[in-house]
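Reply to thread "Modeling small-molecule complexes from scratch"

Following up on the discussion above, here's a worked example others can learn from. I took a protein sequence and the SMILES for zinc ion and predicted the complex. Inputs first:
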Amino acid sequence: MDHPVLFACFEKLLPLAVKWVGSMEKRILRQGVPLTELETADARVIGLREPDRIRLLPLSRAPVPNDPVLQASAAAIRFLTPATRGLALRHGILLRSDCWRDRGLIAHELVHTAQYERFGGIEPFLRQYLLECLTEGYPRAPLEQEAIATAAAAIHRPRES
Ligand SMILES: [Zn+2]
């Protein structure tokens, strides 16, 4: 599926993506584990006020939406590929098993969680994020660049004494 087609279908695809993210988040919040003390400290530095709400869940490979159109769209903008190591579904964070407890990756996904909160929910965040991926491309999308920079600054901060 190419980008002009995705653009044309964006308003139809977005609600499917929102629904998928919402159901994945529910599952992760049910099955996942809380952040460690260090990850919680990272979350606070990143700006999350309620790190206790966050859950991490390991998966052997990146999840695939059941809807074939959604699946193709996610692959086309590289939102989800076999190379996806982690994914923030608002307060639920998926980590590929071989990246489990990878501090830098978790910090990156926590910045996306903070972005969901800043935009005020799944729909407004995804609208902005997916449009950026469509127009700028992943990983040049500004929200992606913010995640990369903020996560690096958070985990390389001077140690509190
Ligand atoms: Zn990212």
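What I'd highlight from this example: Residues 3-155 form one domain. The chain has a mean pLDDT of 93. Questions welcome below.
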